[in-house]
Amino acid sequence: MAWLRDIDIWFADRVFVHHQQTHRYAMSLVRQADEAEELVQEAYARLFGLDDWAGIANPHAFTVRIVRNLAIERFRRAEVVRLDRGAILHTLEVADQDPTPDVVAMDRSELRHVVSVMQQMPPRMREAMVLRRIEGLPPAQVAERMNISVSTVETHLIKALRLLTQRLNRQEAQASTEQATAWESKERLERS
To answer: Which of 151, 108, 112, 107 is nearest to 128 (CA)?
Structure first.
């Protein structure tokens, strides 16, 4: 993973995860799949051209705003603009991007699970994970701080991510089983 730049990781984690929503928004503006995809790709290209990309507070909302501005530019340059498209652009505003309370609650619960699993990791593995994934240091700086090689840092990260994934999947399966058991108990009580 050493070949990934910081902007690539940021883009994957903060922008591309919302690709379907961004594409749907572009479709609502231009009504043609090819044109919508062009808008989205051009917005992504503009993001990669920014020098201060790391300072963007809400990358998804920023991307949606770029898509909207690009669509407006295209409509202004077009010789003939259909009346309904122009009306759509002037009436559409970017929807509130803040998460709903249920999403916040689910995210907090998931974060508690992640913290719990990370606290159970071996100290060096946890340290590598915190420095790389939470503090965002490049692997070379993590290696320097921990006084180990970059390949050892990557080994720690791979093991940490594998452990994290396994434990979270196990907790999710256990929670799912407990929920199913609770529903079955409730059904039995209702039948009697």
So the answer is: 151
Q: CA torsion angle for 116, 120, 126, 132 (degrees, to 10)?
A: -30
- Contacts of 148-156 with C-beta under 8 Å, sequence gap 24+, read 148/124, 150/2, 153/128, 154/1, 154/2, 156/124, 156/125, 156/128, 156/129
Which residues, 6 or more positions from 10, have their beta carbon under 8 angstroms from its beta carbon?
53, 54, 59
Kindly report, residue by residue over 147-183, the tens digit of the pLDDT.
Answer: 999 899 899 889 988 888 888 777 766 766 766 666 6
State which amino acid sits at residue 146.
M
- Of 175, 170, 165, 176, the C-alpha closest to 121 is 165
DSSP 53: G
| CB contact set of 136 (below 8 Å; sequence gap of 6+) | 6
Identity of the residue numbered 78 = A
Q: What does the alpha-carbon distance between residue 137 and residue 14 come to, in Å, rounded to a whole number?
A: 17
- Please give the model's pTM, rounded to 2 decimal places: 0.44
- Rounded distance, CA 31 to CA 101, Å? 32
